[in-house]
Amino acid sequence: MYNREYTSERITELKPNEIFVFGSNLAGAHGGGAARLAYNRFGAIWGQGVGLQGQSYAIPTMQGGVETIKPYVDEFIEFARQHPEYKFFVTQIGCGIAGFRVEEIAPLFADAIEVENVILPQTFVETLK
């Protein structure tokens, strides 16, 4: 089970090997919430709505229901497995501007529980227990 730290509620800086994982939109218009923070501080690229960019990783959450988010979360988890040199801090993606509840999004990250370099929000982990 999950036996490591949790993603902080407020991330303001990252070490060189750390990645800020945030909810985005497919157009990569990082105008609000964690997406704006990723753009302003962690190298998110305007116009890129998916994947690694600078010290951030975008997971689209604004294109429909939870079922449309799952493939992007699965892709992220596989990416994290392939890149153990990075530590990924997952924010509560989809639970802000996108309007989803933790109970809807957390199950998408069930496979991340066993991926040591993926750090999840405490709310996600508690929901998954």
* Number of alpha- plus pi-helical segments: 4
* Helix/strand structural class: alpha/beta
What is the percentage of strand-forming residues? Answer: 15-25%
Strands of the largest sheet, in order across it? 2-3-1-4-5
Structural domain tally? 1
Number of strands: 5
Report the uncertain regions.
none
Helical content, roughly?
25-40%
Radius of gyration over C-alpha positions, nearest whole angstrom: 13 Å
Give the biggest beta sheet. 5 strands, mixed
- Would you tell me the overall average pLDDT? 96
State the oligomer. single chain
Q: What keyword list fits this structure?
A:
about 130 residues, alpha/beta, five-stranded mixed beta sheet, about 15% strand, globular
Give me a quick take on this structure:
This protein has four helices and five strands, in the order βαββαβαβα. With 129 residues, it is of the alpha/beta class. It has one domain.
